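1st attempt posting a full record on here, be nice pls
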Amino acid sequence: MKKTILITGSSSGFGKVIAKTLASAGHKIFATMRGVEGKNKEVASELEVWAATNKADLEVVEMDILDDHSVNNAVKYALFTAGKLDVVINNAGMLVFGITEAFTPEQVMNVFNTNVVGAMRVNRAVLPHFRENHDGLIVYIGSVTSSIISPFQGPYVASKSAEDKIAETTHYEVSRYGIDSVIIQPGAYTSGTNHFPGAQKPADEETVKAYSLIEELPGQLVNNLQRIVEEGDEANVQDVADAVLKTIDTPKGQREFRVVIDPQHHGAEPINEVVDKMQYDFMERIGISELMKVKM
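the predicted structure (as tokens):
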């Protein structure tokens, strides 16, 4: 069944592939990004040309997840144009890597504003519509680092963990309204995206110099992550897009809450299994375990 889907961060490697994959499957896509006429004009044009060439129902829409007004306008436009939204994909985010102490407070706040508060802004814009319809799906592009951290990504890891917990808490609070939530947890994709090439470095260079005992390690992070991809596997961004498509096409009530797509095999799956069991046990003891399942 054709669904109307809004994707944030569609200028990223993940976002572009997800948008094209879902549009190719016949869904109606609002591919949002900031700077449609500015910094991301080339990417926006690429998606528009692709959509026209492939006769796909994909439209690029301006949205800056750091700005309430921009988010609200984009969601209102999508609702006015399509009449409804079925799925929202919180994909927009930013990566940093380097010595944690050397990131300034302003840098850390920017990471959290993007990776955590940005998703909350989008949710606040779409949840009234979902609640009114007693239906809807929120997909979060999270990270396995919420379970197993990668050193030298401190602010990023902390923010993705926070996003994960906001997503889980929101899931419990909206499940009675028939709204479903899924967290996709990718591993590290060192190619096929601009995630690592575009990652922000620490601004405090003097503090970076103070870490001479490990100064070479942050720079080796990408190669080390690529090295541990198991032989025969491939860190292909398309795998993440395919997981998103499968999630959307899975009937409500049958979706997994967390989906791990991890070429490095960090080990998030057994941790998730234990945490889910303990969470259910706790929710059952306080009498609200039914909130863990979406109401049909």
